[in-house]
Amino acid sequence: MAVKVLFLGPLSDLLDTAEISLPAPLSWGQLLDSVPQAVAEQLQGERIHVACQGHVLRDKTALFALDGQEVALLPPVSGG
Length: 80
Hints:
By secondary structure, the chain is α+β, with helices and mostly antiparallel strands. It has 3 helices and 7 strands. The radius of gyration is 12 Å and the shape is globular.
């Protein structure tokens, strides 16, 4: 039983991988406990959004992902 967690943009550089698999069910606190402290600090910032199964969560701390679900961690997007 696992949840696929995708780290997009600079988050993947910080973690040195674009995806990890974590045990399900997965809460926000468990996610933060499963990544290095530097990554956890970035994830807690206001500008990082969280999507579960393609739906951006209004409150990322309400994350609760089940077996087979995908969580995407979305950093701010820049463009021009």
